[in-house]
Amino acid sequence: xxxxxxxxxxxxxxxxxxxxxxxxxxxxxCVRHLANVFQPKTSPWIKMENGSSAEIRATVxxxxxxxxxxxx
Length: 72
Ligand code: SF4
Prior knowledge:
It is a single chain. By secondary structure, this protein is α+β, with helices and mostly antiparallel strands. The chain has a single domain (7-70), classed as Alpha-Beta Plaits. It contains two helices and three strands. A three-stranded antiparallel β-sheet has the order 1-2-3, with helices on one face. Strand 1 (7-11) and strand 2 (16-20) form a beta hairpin. Residues 24-30, 63-65, 67-68 line the site of iron/sulfur cluster. Iron/sulfur cluster binds at residues 24-30, 63-65, 67-68.
């Protein structure tokens, strides 16, 4: 399946994470840094309720590809 156009948003009501599937290089930085939130084998793969906004923001900023960004 061509996932290059898939864009998904995940929010906890405070911050919104945007994931652009086509940009993800599967470096797994996010998974290593915050495994409770970023769980690629489950759905939804980003579990916003499992981390604080500060933790999630810090992890999004570590994404090397730009696949993860914050909406606001
Ligand atoms: S850190 Fe970014 S590029 Fe790496 S797996 Fe996570 S979303 Fe994909």
